[in-house]
Structure prediction request, 665 residues.
Amino acid sequence: MSQDRIKSLLHEDRSYLPPRHGKDVARIRSRREYDALCELARTDNDSFWAERARALLHWFKPWDKVQDTDFNEPRVRWFVGGRLNAAYNCVDRHIISDRRNKAALIWQGEREMEVRAYTYQMLYTDVCRVAAALNALNIKKGDRVALYLPMIPELVVAMLACARIGAVHTNIFTGYADGGVQSRIHDSGARLVITADAVMRGGEPKPLKSNLDRILNHCPSVEKVLVVNRANTEVNMLKGRDIWWQDLLDDFTLDADFPCVSMDAEDPLFILHTSGSTGRPTGVIHSTGGYLTYAAHTAQWVFDLKDTDVYWCTADCGWITGHSYLVYGPLSLGATTIMFEGTPTWPRPDRYWRIVEKFRVNILYTAPTVIRSLMRQGVEWTNHYDLSSLRILGSVGEPLNPEAWMWYHTYIGKGELPIVDTWWQTESGGIMLSPLPYATHIKPGSVTKPLPGIEAGIMSGDGSDDCAQEGGHLVIRKPWPGLMTGVFQNPEKFKSYFNRFPGCYLSGDGARVDEEGNYWILGRMDDAINVSGHRLSTSEIESVLIAHPAVGEAAVVPMPHEIKGEAIYAYVAVKKEVEWSETLRKELRTWVRSQIGALASPEQIQFVSELPKTLSGKTVRRILRKIASGDNLESLGDTTTLAHPEVLEDIYNNYLKLKVGQPEK
Ligand code: WTA
Prediction:
């Protein structure tokens, strides 16, 4: 973690009191209430979570034991013996209440005039029909279903239909290249894939189904493919395997109701792959009872979500944020959730503000990279829109730097709205550290405090816990219901989160805590890079580079980036017979893009004759990271352990050349 970043954080002394307006009716109204809840969760953890689970969800059968957890083993079991169904909680129970005709899901298509809205009753009918159709395809409880779909309502319906019959969905972001899609489908052993002909981007359809056709030759577990017609493009339908979604549902004999399966609290609800440090994606498993409790709990407290709110989370459902805060959290609370198919800047950079005005959005949850890119486009794009319906702003995915915080607060929040900068991870299921909008004294750049029930801490590399102020590894010391229950077919990987510091969950992030107990996230301590809020693994990118015939060795490190937060800097040593050239640089970029996806495409590729290594032959990434971050030659730290320290000067000079647009050598 860079010392400069720590220094600049230390100088951040602005702070904001919670707004008065709305406080009286807020769910958590003051610091005193927050403290009391923390105390309750500390002294009687089981009762705290039991009370939340009872208040938030409908259980077919209550649990016998609140938790049976042990970080040393590790064992994560919540609401043992309890039975429930996630789709029942997100849909069925609302149609027997006053919410029946309330808008559950409002979809804004990429084109302005394309809007679809589902009441809870309408959502129920669609979910039942799709559940019946999946059942007709012989998809059963525990089967995996891969959802490779754009941001269209069918995606939400498919997730809930899987949950209804107990199938485990595994969502795949449509921006991944073939390799990423293939490994996720293959690793999960999916029997069914649901996809669309194409995804709309910038007014043009981009094919999905034809990508899938290439991939499925290597995924023997897949028996059927359901295809949603999104863009009326031509696709090949393989006889006996591929079925149009519309054809399957266009069956007037389907009943309006389809029963939901009673699931054990510990049955998996979904698997979501995140970048693993080993180069292979990690299939994070989330359970039905613990996960859903935690998603509902955090959505209600962090966003102060009320029945009258229109709530918009801008994340894609291919990421955990879309799961917890577009679908499961808000729908289990009976809220109105907005889904947007497009991007913030197409056709113009006013798209978000137009949507806020159009649907009178009350709560907006987005990402720092979006805020920074809109900030760069200029504040005038917000001018013509009435943003006065907003009452809470949220951020997730990467550090919200104080400049972006101020812009968000000043121009979108009109200097009044609280910003909840929420820290969490795919593995944590829901928000862990965050302000509560009406109770927390907010400091721009800090994620403030752990939520009640979350016991966070900072550990130094040697396992002592006295480095909170200087910074160290961010750990969680006590189980919480949202924590993943395992890693799919990889128990060793699951263990790796718990074995570095006994009794602690290791987040992989660095953080420090100031005198007032506020947490400041300093970035990843492991080999992950956070590009525009998307976690990528450096070793995965390195192995792809090395797989290219021209490449001998590669080292990938993060570099600071104005909009993306972090970007990818790759050092490449080519094979002996290969020349350094612009053509090769281009080719390597395209190669990475084709193997992992556009997100992983290196911002800069620097050719080196040799990578800096220790005497034992380990690449010293620490130094390469410093160079890519713009540190000068003198501040690279201890270089005496290098086998050939003289290579550094060359690497550094070439770094400078590339920076001004001259090729190396
Ligand atoms: C980073 C996304 C700073 C962090 C929900 C974490 C953040 C990784 C924040 C998880 C935040 C997330 N401030 N950094 N508010 N939120 N991160 O699994 O490095 O896609 O470990 O989950 O994003 O990324 P993931």
